[in-house]
Amino acid sequence: MSEIQKTLSIIKPDAVERNLSEEIKSIFKKNGFEIIDEKKIKITKEEAEKFYLVHQSKPFYNELCSYLSSGPIIVMVLSKENAIIANRQLMGSTNPNDAEEGTIREKYGLSIDKNSVHGSDSIENAKKEIEFFFSN
Ligand code: CMP
């Protein structure tokens, strides 16, 4: 079954810093995503800890939160048919070394931490993550 969904995408500090934001946004658009909301922000470590709360028990949690709060990021709401899975496919595997050819992480990712983009992994998390950044 297919349905129009919304998903949250983040262009992470490593990609913003290398001025890849416009290129990455154009990849989303070329692949049929509509960017229905977006903003460039810098978050605090405490905000990053809240955002990544599901990873709280992971050994990489502290580093992950320091990293996401280390520089400007671009948060976007993307919309498309089956947007959540489509975005995950377009991003490629979490570790850029394993990412399929032509995916965003394969093209731009530097490491498992500096993997250039984040995308929601489920309908439930997409709702939570969009609300986190765009509830006003
Ligand atoms: P992201 O999709 O933003 O979700 C959590 C992030 O944790 C992930 O991308 C990676 O950048 C980061 N991370 C760091 N180490 C690991 C790991 N061992 N397994 C999964 N994610 C990791």
Structure write-up:
- With 136 residues, the chain is α+β, with helices and mostly antiparallel strands.
- It has one domain (4-134): 2-Layer Sandwich (Alpha-Beta Plaits).
- 41% of the residues lie in helices and 21% in strands.
- It contains seven helices and four strands.
- Strands 2-3-1-4 form a four-stranded antiparallel β-sheet, sandwiched between helices.
- Helix 3 (45-51) crosses helix 4 (61-68).
- The site of adenosine-3',5'-cyclic-monophosphate (CMP) has 8 residues, from loops.
CATH C-level class: Alpha Beta
Please indicate the count of domains: 1
Q: Residue share in helices?
A: 40-55%
| Number of alpha- plus pi-helical segments | 7
Summarize the SSE layout with pairings.
Blueprint lengths: L3 E8 L1 H5 L3 H10 L3 E8 L3 H7 L9 H8 L4 E9 L1 H9 L12 H5 L8 E3 L3 H12 L2
Antiparallel strand pairs: 1-3, 1-4, 2-3
Helix pairs in contact: 3-4
Bound molecules: adenosine-3',5'-cyclic-monophosphate.
Could you provide a short overview of the structure?
The protein has seven helices and four strands. By secondary structure, the protein is α+β, with helices and mostly antiparallel strands.
Labels describing this entry:
alpha+beta, binds adenosine-3',5'-cyclic-monophosphate, 4-stranded antiparallel beta sheet
